[in-house]
Design goal:
Blueprint (H helix, E strand, L loop, with lengths): L14 H8 L5 H17 L11 H15 L5 H9 L2 H4 L5 H7 L2 H9 L8 H16 L3 H17 L8 H19 L2 H18 L1
């Protein structure tokens, strides 16, 4: 009997895998911070489900896995922010000050930069989204690394229906986000762009 195919969107990055990957690559303080971020994000996103019917936290955990395993970027603040990047959007309790208190100011800054106002609609939403793009454009490269890792995970899930209009999602990514790579010219961002272009080619072939 053939083993079932392990589809990309059907897997997550477990706490044990995370610790195993970074325990000897970050200092003990960063390790504690990252584990705390993992637990907070897991709690906040516990009951959320994506359009592909998978737990939302699986997506969050895979973004951290991309930062760690693929980019090999063992920066404790960035890994923690990757795990926390949607908690302000999805929690009525957690604020930027809570993140700053429990973690640190830089992690809070990255998460704030990556937070959209998802309560708006229509023209207000469009204006807010444009402000978001501008804020990210002038933010630190760490903010962009987390954002592009998140977009990469979504690209890999497009074939599973995670976005209602995958072609629009790709068009928006290329229009709004790709120019940021040109301005920063960071090797990790370039690596992500190459992977996303490869995925796009397979989707359109």
């Amino acid at each position: 009997m053939n083993s079932p195919i392990n589809l990309y969107n059907q897997n997550q990055y477990s706490r044990e895998e995370l610790i195993g990957d970074i325990a000897e690559r970050v200092d003990p303080v960063d390790l504690t911070t990252i584990i705390g971020a993992y637990e907070m994000a897991s709690s906040v996103h516990e009951f959320q489900v994506r359009n592909d019917s998978t737990p939302y936290f699986w997506h969050i955990s895979r973004v951290a896995r991309i930062v760690i395993r693929e980019l090999e970027y063992y920066n404790g603040d960035v890994i923690a922010a990757a795990l926390l990047h949607d908690v302000l959007e999805d929690s009525d309790i957690i604020t930027a000050e809570v993140i700053k208190y429990n973690f640190n100011a830089y992690i809070s800054y990255i998460v704030e930069v990556l937070t959209k106002n998802i309560q708006l609609g229509g023209a207000q939403r469009e204006h807010s989204d444009q402000e978001y793009i501008e804020r990210l454009r002038f933010a630190s490269v760490d903010c962009k690394i987390v954002k592009f890792a998140e977009r990469l995970d979504n690209y890999r899930c497009l074939e599973f229906g995670v976005k209602r209009n995958p072609f629009q999602y790709i068009e928006e990514t290329e229009r709004d986000y790709y120019p940021m790579v040109d301005s920063d010219d960071h090797p990790l961002l370039r690596r992500i762009i190459e992977e996303m272009d490869s995925i796009k080619s397979k989707l359109f072939s």
